[in-house]
Specification:
The protein is mainly α. 56% of the residues lie in helices and 10% in strands. The strands form 3 sheets. The protein has a 3-stranded antiparallel sheet, covered by helices on one side. It has a two-stranded antiparallel sheet with strand order 2-3. Helix 4 packs across helix 7 and helix 5 packs across helix 6. The chain is globular and about 45 Å long.
Length: 239
C-alpha cells in the first residue's frame, strides 16, 4: 500500500467541497475501516492518562491546564468502555481520492492499529473546517474555533455529524467535545515531538492559534457541546 499509493489517481475530496454525498461516502469508509479490526477495551482511565501525557508533553501552561481541566471533566462523568479501533492518523479530504465510483484513502504514515474511534473523525472535521469559507477577514484558525463554539453558520452541522458518528460507534457523548481538544493538542504537538522542521510544520502554527482561541472561549465551547439538538433549534428562533 505504501508503494502503490504513489500511482493512485483521482480527484481529492478537498476539490469536491460542498458535495455532501462524497463526504458521506468518506465517513462510511471510515466506519467500515474502524469495524475491520476492533481491539481491546478503552476506558475512562485510559483517556485521562492520554490527556495527562498531552499535558506533560507541552511547555505551555495554558495548554497544560486545558488538558488537565478536560481530564477532570472526564473523571467527573460516568465511567465508559469503548473498543479500540485502527486509526489512519491523517484522515483528511486531501488524502481521500475519488476515481469514478472508487474511493481510495492514501498517506498511511501515521497508521496505528489501536486508538480511539473519534480520532480520525476529528482530524477530518478540524482540517475541513479550517479550509471552509468563512466570513470576511476570518483566518482558518478563527473558522475552526467558531465551528466548535457555535458561532459559525455550519457549527451545528459539525456538531450533529460528530454526535451522529459517535452514536453509531456507541461512543459516549462526553467524548465528542473531549476529542476535539485531544485532536487540537495532538496537532500542535505532533511535529514538535518529531523535531521536524519542514513544509509540514506550516499548519502547526494555525492549529496552535486555534487552540489559543479555544482557551479564551472555553465556557462557550462546553455550553455549545452540552446543548441538545432541540434546545439549539428553539434558541435559533428566539428574538
Amino acid at each position: 500500500t505504501f508503494v502503490l499509493e504513489d500511482f493512485v489517481v483521482g480527484r481529492t475530496l478537498s476539490t469536491l467541497r460542498g458535495r455532501p454525498v462524497y463526504e458521506a461516502r468518506a465517513l462510511d469508509w471510515l466506519e467500515a475501516f474502524q469495524s475491520s479490526a476492533a481491539g481491546g477495551p478503552l476506558r475512562r482511565i485510559d483517556l485521562v492518562e492520554r490527556l495527562r501525557r498531552l499535558a506533560a508533553a507541552t511547555k505551555s501552561e495554558p495548554f497544560r491546564e486545558l488538558a488537565n481541566d478536560t481530564a477532570r471533566k472526564v473523571m467527573g462523568g460516568e465511567d465508559f468502555e469503548v473498543a479500540e479501533v485502527p486509526v489512519h492518523g491523517d484522515f483528511t479530504a486531501s488524502n481521500i481520492l475519488l476515481d469514478g465510483n472508487e474511493l481510495c484513502v492514501i498517506d498511511w504514515e501515521w497508521l496505528r492499529l489501536g486508538g480511539w474511534p473519534l480520532e480520525d473523525l476529528w482530524w477530518y472535521l478540524i482540517v475541513s473546517t479550517r479550509d471552509a469559507p468563512g466570513t470576511a477577514g476570518e483566518t482558518g484558525a478563527e473558522r475552526m474555533v467558531d465551528a466548535l463554539t457555535g458561532r459559525s453558520a455550519h457549527a451545528s452541522q459539525v456538531r450533529d455529524l460528530a454526535r451522529g458518528f459517535a452514536s453509531a460507534r456507541r461512543v459516549p457523548s462526553i467524548l465528542v467535545p473531549v476529542f476535539s481538544i485531544v485532536t487540537f493538542l495532538d496537532m500542535t504537538l505532533r511535529w514538535k515531538d518529531e523535531r521536524r522542521v519542514d513544509w509540514r510544520t506550516a499548519p502547526n502554527a494555525e492549529y496552535e492559534e486555534a487552540l489559543r482561541g479555544l482557551l479564551l472561549r472555553q465556557d462557550e465551547f462546553w455550553e455549545f457541546w452540552g446543548q441538545d439538538d432541540e434546545t439549539a433549534r428553539l434558541e435559533r428562533h428566539l428574538p
